[in-house]
Amino acid sequence: MTELERIAAALERLAPAPAPAPDFAAAGAFAWHTQPDRLEPVARVSRVDLALLVGVDRSRDTLLANTRHFAAGLPANNALLWGARGMGKSSLVKAIHAQIRAEGQDLKIVELSREDLPSVARLLALLRAAPALRFLLFCDDLSFSHDDQHYKSLKAVLDGGIEGRPENVLLYATSNRRHLMPRDMIENERSTAINPSEAVEEKVSLSDRFGLWLGFHPCSQDDYLAMIHGYCAAHGLHVPEERLRAEAIEWQATRGARSGRVAWQFFCDLAAREGVHVAT
Q1: If you ran DSSP here, which 8-state letter would residue 82 be given?
Q2: What gap in Å lies between CA 48 and CA 87, rounded to an integer?
Q3: 134 pLDDT more than 60
């Protein structure tokens, strides 16, 4: 064996093996992992029923219509769900996926972590190879720091490069930030760049590539209480109204915040005290 042949053999051993063709019939949800590349079926998705998501009616209806269009093979937009933490952004995505499947559409959801964005081209190649299926690519809690270059990988999902985004793939992402970048980072770019507008444009324009922007804002006390009532009704938990209201308000005052997440945490505590089992 020549020296070049030995080097080629060594490089081949170091190169990752191509990802095996996934069995998409195994589940309706998958998680993307790397090292090695693989799509792992998710037998049970952690989610809440769509009817229990209170105070996000406009976002719910818009995203549901967009997803129905995509599942039916019609044009649809990538969506960025941004805003207050704990207001049900990721819960809405997962609940809508369940709703679409309940309506008879075999829509798959694939969770992609922010850390795995550099591998997204390989993931898209796998999904592109199954044109008969439609995939909702879900990236939760998406944001970028000042020295983070992962946002360039995200452009491959949104724009698709020379091949274009696969027609059978749609991206839904959630973030606490409207432009995916911290405000101080944007201000720093403006103050230090030779051409401030161009420096900011490259990063801020990333969020512009999402066709849908859906904002989630802190809920009112009425919405907060309505969420708790909804959870109680769904799980058959009966508590006197006066006591429920007083304890719920005390809970959110102690936490210093009102949100869907705080409402669910209060309900779990209440259910435990009442001896009611709740799947979490």
Answers
A1: E
A2: 13
A3: yes
pLDDT of res. 18: 58
Q: Is the pLDDT of residue 90 over 90?
A: yes
Contact 232, 97 (CB under 8 A): no
- Domain 24-216: CATH superfamily, name plus number: P-loop containing nucleotide triphosphate hydrolases (3.40.50.300)
Give the Cα separation of 38 and 52 in Å (integer): 33
Q: Is the pTM higher than 0.85?
A: no
Domain ranges (residues) in the chain: 24-216, 221-273
Cα 61 to Cα 67: distance, rounded to the nearest angstrom? 10
Locus of tokens 């997440």? 261
H helices within the chain, ranges in order? 3-14, 57-71, 89-102, 120-128, 150-158, 183-192, 196-208, 221-234, 241-255, 260-273
Q: From CA 157, how far away is CA 165, in angstroms rounded? A: 6
The helix/strand/coil state of 193 is coil
Residue 149 banded pLDDT, cuts 50, 70, 90: low
